[in-house]
Amino acid sequence: MKERGTDVGAERIRQLMMRSLDGELPAREQEELERFLAADPALREEWNRLVRLKEVTQSMMLRKPPDEVWKDYWASVYSRLERGIAWILLSIGAIVLISYGAWTGVQQLLANVTTPWFVKAAILATLVGLVVLFVSVVREKLYVGRREPYKDIER
Amino acid sequence: MEIALGEEAEASERALVLRARAGDRGAFGELVTRYMRRAYYVALGLVGSHDDALDLSQEAFVRAFRARASLDPDRPFYAWLYQIVRRLCFNYLRDRKTRSSRLEQAAPWLMDEVGGRMAESDPARSAERSELRERLEVAIEALPEREREVLVLKEFEGLRYREIAELVGIPIGTVMSRLYAARKRLAESLRGVL
Q: Among the four residues A15, A69, B59, B87, which has the most C-beta atoms within 10 Å?
């Protein structure tokens, strides 16, 4: 068939076939599809296969899970929400405690006159490094992320 | 199954969404109860196994609650939730693909014949139906995820093209193209038994 040979024609026929299979094709366009099918045996064969496939998929459904799934569903979501909050609290608490412990230790080391100078220098370097890293990450999140042109593109 | 709601249902959903947005867990629980089945089944259609579908659909609700500030009470809740479900499912499928081999990822698909397991008096016919179902499951599992998504929404959710286009965020023409591509692949895979 001449029209089927073109991209636009092929696309049109595919759309007609899909809409007809799914009951979304008006009678006038159904006649158009019938004309295409009558004129092209290969297309008719493809159509017949698609019709049989539709019959098969229509006779299948996703298996129902046991009823208990629905009874426990919200309780399970609720538990996850609670656990999420618990994890956040736990993380914040742990970060504060670890930071406080580290700071107290550092203060004692720095105040101690017997601490070698290179240990004090290493402490200072570690602190400065942490601050620079923190500022860099925050800046990236705040500025670069906001101007990222592809940030909304779904990966 | 439809996305659009009647006026009364729409008003009641809007009220629930507003309460959920304010952090009311009871209201959010009602939304969960209202949409848990759809979220589960669409996840099942996408990832193919009960445990994963349950886990991913529940995780979607958890994330929805955390992101409740971005909920728009004037738009259907399910359309918003669906975006979270599909993203979680696609990410999960990609992770699964990179983690395991093709054989391992072929999760047992959970499909049944409509009306439960129909009593088939002829054993040969019964075996034939069973084989057809298994081959269909494998063929759907092998579909590219975007095609599988549209097929699941059409065949198992029973949505119309316009609704699929709205949910997925693509033109109706693309819905039909993906559906055609999916069906063509399935028909190829089932050549000989169709």
A: A15
Structure tokens at A151: 């940030």
Q: Do A50 and B183 touch (CB under 8 A)?
A: yes
B87 interfaces chain A, CB cutoff of 8 Å: yes
Looking at the partner chain, which of A15, A22, A65 has a beta carbon nearest the beta carbon of B173? A15
What digits encode the pLDDT tens for the residues A53-98?
A: 999 998 888 888 999 999 999 999 999 999 988 999 999 999 999 9
* Model pLDDT for residues A87-111, shown as the tens digit of each residue: 999 999 999 999 999 999 988 988 9
| CB pairs A-B closer than 8 Å | 107
Name, in order, each residue with C-beta under 8 angstroms of B56's C-beta and a sequence gap of 6 or more: B43, B47, B85, B88, B89, B92
pLDDT tens digit sequence for A7-46: 668 899 999 999 999 999 999 999 999 999 999 999 999 9
- In B44-102, the DSSP E strands lie at none
Residue A23: which region, alpha, beta or left (left: phi > 0; alpha: psi -120 to 50)?
A: left
Spans of all domains in chain A: 3-58
- Residues in contact with A126: Cβ distance below 8 Å, sequence separation at least 6, in sequence order: none
Which one, of B158, B133, B184, lies nearest residue B38 by Cα?
Answer: B158
- What are the structural domains of chain B? 1-103 (1.10.1740.10), 111-194 (1.10.10.10)
Please state, rounded to an integer, the average pLDDT across all residues of chain B: 87
Name the residue in chain B with its Cα closest to that of A10.
B177
